Fold each of these.
Amino acid sequence: MTIDVATAQMTGRQALNHTLRLEMRRSDQVLVMGETVRHVGAAGVTADLFGEFPDRVIETPVSENAIIGSALGLALEGFVPVVEIYCADFMLAIANELINDIPKWRQQQRRSGPLPLVIRACMGATAGLGPEHSQSMEPYLHHAPGLTVITPGTPSDMAGLLRASIRGGEPVVLLEHRKVYDATGPVDTDPDFMVPIGRAETVLDGDRVTLVAWGWMRHLAEQAAEQLIGEGISVELIDPRTVRPMDWSTVLESVARTRRLVVVEEAPVTGSVAAEVVARVAEAGLGEVTCRRVTMPDAIHPYSATMEAELLPTVASITTAVRAVLA
Amino acid sequence: VTWETKLTLTPIARRAIYGHMMTSRLFDEECAARLQRGEPLPHYHSGVGQEALMVAPVASLRPEDRIIYTHRGYGHLMAKGVSPREIAHDLLMKVGGTNLGLGGVMHVHRPDLGVMGREGVFGTRFGLAAGFGLASKLRGEDTVTLCFYGEAAGARGLLYEALNMCKLWRLPVVFVAENNGWSFTSRTEWLYPSPRMSDAWKGFVPVQVVDGNDVEEVWAATDEAVERARSGGGPTVVEGMTYRLAPHIWFDDAGYQPAEEVERRRKDDPLPRFRGRLLELGEDTADLERVEAAARHDVSEAWSSADAARLATWDDTPWLVKA
């Protein structure tokens, strides 16, 4: 028996739009809410949805707290709200709902059953958007018990993880790097295609060094790995895809073999997700492991794209770190 | 008690309101006695003096309607059908309550009764209320959400955001401001300019300020607001003027609250006031005594049950939220 898997080349933006459309067709409980979503949303993801679903694409005032609070109310009422926050940095404006209320709700209230609530936002350093529109939010959010934090790095993962989030019945934050919106790749067009939440992808198999990178950093890490492989250095590249819960077994199993770890992250170094990865590896009793983190320094994004580029991880800074752990 | 829609407060509804007010009062008196004996009651906030404003608005609701209650007083919960026993168990973090020590009395949860839970940091309630209202509208149902709030939540910007949404989409939500003169150690007039909590909303949504210790006045205003919401007329703010006759929280001695002011305001206690009114309306003293005896019985049973129960432990509840 053969199973036909139809794939299509899509950008990340198209993959999300395609998935939202199919999920809204599949279930009339799925709602899209947010600022400017009636047109195309913050980054083009909700284009043309309003025409097909005028009652379920809900254009909201610029009231982030009420958007997220009402989405919680709708989720408690059995709807599946997919909320677009205009920019991931604005999650700090709704931190009370996002961290104090939503992840704790079912435990404090001892409520059984699902709480489907998907919160998406565009994110990432993208050529000079300034310090309040460029931050990587996963370090702020990965500390919160009860929250799932997803950082898809490819159009396929954007589609598969969004669908898994919509059907998963848990509060999920999807942090969508703007550069991945423009990346093109194959996407499985099966209307039930899902990528499991909390499972890493081993992008490249190797045995001398483990590279861990997600979101846009996965692409830089891939380029760095190709360069290193060309030089005869065997690199294993892992994209966790979900930073919380992190697929620790895949990461630890790899580092147990390679004993060398480089974690790449766009966020500033202190309190980064990379810090947690290194700490878990250190505690895992794997013997001597050499680690490096390639991150942004503890700095504030400047508006100047030229100045900002000097702060961010690059292919060169990744290859340098890999060579350092091999030395 | 099943409430029924009515043009005036029926004798049955009046007696039911009085019963819930009395149950709430006796429950608070038992709490006060325990605090007096030095027993801890974490997160307890007395509702003494505010019973009319807690209970009368709920009398206009149907079983499927939603309430978002405040932390102060348990009259809203009781009027919506939550038993004093469950509330006592939740207060003591015992098995037999609604949340087995995971949320205590601050997070009493009975979605089957329209009690959908409560936020921990005041303010999220307004977004939730808009969400419940939007859910009704999307389903084409006429379920109403009654959102109580005090001076603290009402000072947060989220109330504006939610009122704007409710007005924009004509959502069936009624906001009931409990103006009890105090916000912990601060007087309302130090926090609100008039010092009314609802002045800012006049001209934006229908606003009605009522004597919050007058059951009939509270009921008439909230009943009109609930009917407006139910028939697609959108949100209303009803502000009830009342007074906090007890300290703010279990560890508070309210030394900042002038004793003579409290004594003066005690003359306006809604319970004797409503009792007097009921007699004036022709209620029988013996009937009211029966209502009072039932309330006493329920409260006493609630506390014996809670005292006899054991503390909840992690073994009683699955770890609901994945770390």
Note: The longest helix of chain A spans residues 12-26.
Amino acid sequence: MISVPRGTGRATAIVVAAILLGAPPLLAPYMLSLVTQALIWAMLAMSLDLILGYTGLASLGHAAYLGLGAYSVGILTTRHGANFWVTLAVGILLAALGAAIFGLVALRATGVYFLMITLALGMVVWGLAHRWVSLTAGDNGIASVPRPRGLPWAFTDTLSFYYLVLVAFAVAFVVLWTIVHSPFGKTLVGIRESESRMRTLGYHVWLHKYVGFVIAGAAGGFAGVFWAYYNGFVSPADAELATSVEILLMVALGGRGTLYGPALGAAVIVLLKNVVSVYTHRWLLILGAVYIGTIVYAPEGIVGLLRDRLKERGRVA
Amino acid sequence: VNLEFLIGQVFNGVSYGALLFLLAGGLSLIFGMMRIVNMTHGSYYLLGGYVALTVMWGGAPFIVGILAAALAIAVIGIGEWNAFLKRLSGQELGQVLTTMGFALIFQDLGLVLWGGDPQTIKIPASLSGSWEIGQLFFPVYRVFIVGVAAAIALVLWLVLEKTRLGAMMRATVDDPEMARGVGINVFLISMGVFAMGALLAAVAGVVAGGFVGVYPGADFEILPYAFVVVIVGGMGSLKGALVGSLLVGLLDNFGKALFPELSYFTLFAPMAMILAVRPTGLFGRA
């Protein structure tokens, strides 16, 4: 499409993969833990991008799936001593189930209405986390979530846990990549571009959206499982509205409709947040400016900016 | 569940609903007219409370506090709309992120300027105390809130339904392009509505400051309620905002009293059910 030298994308991907695989042993534990965190949020942002970027539906309730995945881990490990595979399965299934129910309600609407309905649905999960104290411990949250059990490795140190999350990230990326490049993914893009045309062509528009919505939810739950293990702590903040908006920001900042864009956006926000908060307490002020600046200066995200730059260069040459 | 409990809860629910109406009435018109998803609305509410608090620390009476807050927040709203939001029509994601950015900035500024401690707005002596009827107590201040909300609802209704200005506003909600075509200044009308929404949110913030206080976090605590009122009632519908506010106020109160563990669930789940049947809300048009 664009006059980028052939293979640039593949070369970049190989370099990034090599860095993610090789560099961590050289990093200080604090930096390594930030990179781990960035990978987890990248999974969340990519999962949201499936419905926001590829299907064109802005959801304000995506943190609900993070919460469902994270609480599955929190409750099952601290009260029932569950192993990793059980928590992973329950976390994904619960998030998928939540999305399956929410999708029935939310997908009747589009645009602003979809946004508002997903907000209300997200608040249902947050409300349960906040108030159902006997199950979720309310605002105190669930502390001392152990590292994954029942795996051949203990994953107690930062480095090995990083590699576990990296494997999870790779799995999420490959699965989502396969989905968006499949005929199903192309159909979602078609629906984003023109719902009526896709309907006329005989596609079952609602069903495609619904399946996409449920997959995005399940992938969000998958990320939530690792978030709980990473943090060792689960609280209603994981499912709150501000978190949902932050995931939206990550996708918008990186670039909608590309999987690597949201992953990049997530990494930028996580690093910025942690690095800036070291220097100043006025972190919210800066985050607020990032929100506004993204929309003013990079409405198509960082990937969009780079693409424009490349296009210009292509024209000159 | 006895009768006193029932009446008491209904009264609390209605007075909370009245407060929500102040907050959500303007938000609903903003949605309806401009399709702007405004995450800053809760900040207007919080900042309104802080402005009134500051003015009243200087010795001004309660009513001056309300007016100062209304004016200051209307100006902020106009500025935000003019500088950013008017260019983002039809871009929900852009609106959400921009207004969220402002909400975060206002949240932090609030923390810098007024600190992290909860404050209470001192209500006039004539509004304190309560009326006693049999075994029941009705705090005068809550009756006052219901009165203010009813008065504002009436004024808004009269303006919208009975005046030329109101007709122009309704035309702008129904079909902005056509309204522009027949010579209505859609720009001014939209700005006016946005300012009015911000102003009412500020009034709600001051009034709420008298009984729940003004504290960091109140902005994001109340915001979902305002959204839910608007969604349930239907965007752009005054009647919808009124019915939605009362419904949310009552559901919230009874939910918290009867099922404390599931209280938010009992609020948001019925909302979702209503939307499943009527995606545009009770009184909204697609």
Note: The two ends of chain B are 40 Å apart (CA to CA).
